[in-house]
Amino acid sequence: MKTTGKAASNMQDAKATGRDTRTAVLEGSIRANVPLRKTFVQANEGGDSRHGPLKEFVTGRDLRGLKAYLLIVAACSSGVNGWSTTRDSMVWARMLDIVDTANDQSARTGAWRALLRLRKRKLIDCHRTGTMITVTLLREDGTNQPYERPMGATEEERYLQIPGTFWTTGRDEHLDLPGLAMFLVVAREKNWSSFPLEKAPKWYGWSADTHERGLNKLLTLGLVERREKYKKAPLLPAGVTKTYEYKRTAIVQPRKAKKAVTTGR
Predict the structure, then answer these.
(1) CA distance 240 to 47
(2) Beta strand pairing status for 159-163 and 33-37?
(3) Residue (of 135, 128, 115) closest to 64 by Cα position
(4) What distances in angstroms separate CA 106 from CA 85, 114, 119, one per listed residue?
(5) What is the pLDDT of residues 50-83, one digit of tens each?
(6) Cα 240 to Cα 234: distance, rounded to the nearest angstrom
(7) Which of residues 144, 168, 192 is at a domain's end?
(8) Are residue 122 and residue 184 in the same domain, yes or no?
(9) Relative orientation angle of helices 208-220 and 177-188, to the nearest 10 degrees
(10) Is residue 62 part of a domain?
(11) Domain containing 238: what range?
């Protein structure tokens, strides 16, 4: 039977969007906040370098790969399926918004290539069976070690939290690569921390310009707030220097766990 123009239009209107798909995946993970080891963003002090795996996404201009990785962590870190998730390659493509700019076959290929880049960085394992792709989390520091949920007991186990609403309300959709990288940097630290531009290459592995553009993007989108702080500077003409401190705004702060309701007998 021939499909009428009206029926085709109705079908298109009913088709799931990328955000719909991300929301459905996150609802299945049963977590209000997604934990991510801080060492993904920046290595702890004492090693040869402070750079974390995040650097490779920024210097490699891989926004799609970074978004894919964060969604995989969100989908798998509940441990419901043993740190793994299996989806059709078109679902992966729609989750990453690839279907908006490519035909079906190109979208499937684009999704698989994004996942292969993550495997090369030793952040996930993945394999295909027909059109189905299974992804398994590895440790966030890129050491190719099996994933275990971070518990926060040691420096290596410290983690930041990203609220599930970051994706379900579309906060991620307006962030470019510098903005998303700096969102993770700010989330890694305590509220009202400073992020000096001149420290960016040593601390994170990207340029001061990228650092600044990311912070400005977050301010423009209302995802961080900024305040001024003044420090004594005896060797400067004014005797004082100004710095900025940042924190996440309420809309992207981790959600507090709901307290269990008990009833008397």
Answers:
(1) 33
(2) antiparallel
(3) 115
(4) 22, 12, 20
(5) 999 999 999 999 999 999 999 999 999 888 778 9
(6) 7
(7) 168
(8) no
(9) 90
(10) yes
(11) 175-253
50 and 135 inside one domain = yes
Task: For residue 22, give both structure tokens.
Answer: 């991300």
Q: Are residues 133 and 240 in the same domain?
A: no
- The answer to whether residues 219 and 156 belong to one domain is no
Cα first-last separation, the chain? 62
How far apart CA 56 and CA 247 sit, in angstroms, is 25
Residue pLDDT, tens place only, 191-207: 999 999 999 999 999 99
Q: Which residue has the tokens 């996942």?
A: 115
Verify that 87 and 183 share a domain, yes or no.
no
Long-range CB contacts for residues 188-197, cutoff 8 Å, separation at least 24: 188/38, 188/41, 188/42, 188/160, 191/247, 191/248, 192/227, 192/245, 192/246, 192/247, 193/245, 193/246, 193/247, 194/229, 194/243, 194/244, 194/245, 194/246, 195/246, 196/243
What is the structure's pLDDT at 3? 56
Q: 76 and 37 share a domain?
A: yes
> The CATH number of the domain where 140 resides is what?
1.10.10.10
Estimate to the nearest angstrom the gap between the alpha carbon of 107 and the chain centroid.
Answer: 21
Place of tokens 């078109």: 90
57: Cα separation from own chain's centroid: 11
Which band of pLDDT confidence, cut at 50, 70 and 90, is reported for residue 226? very high
Of 4-8, 61-65, 128-132, 133-137, least confident by mean pLDDT is 4-8
| Distance set, CA 8 to CA 5, 133, 189, 221 (Å) | 5, 29, 49, 36
- Cβ neighbors of 105 (< 8 A, separation 6 or more) are none
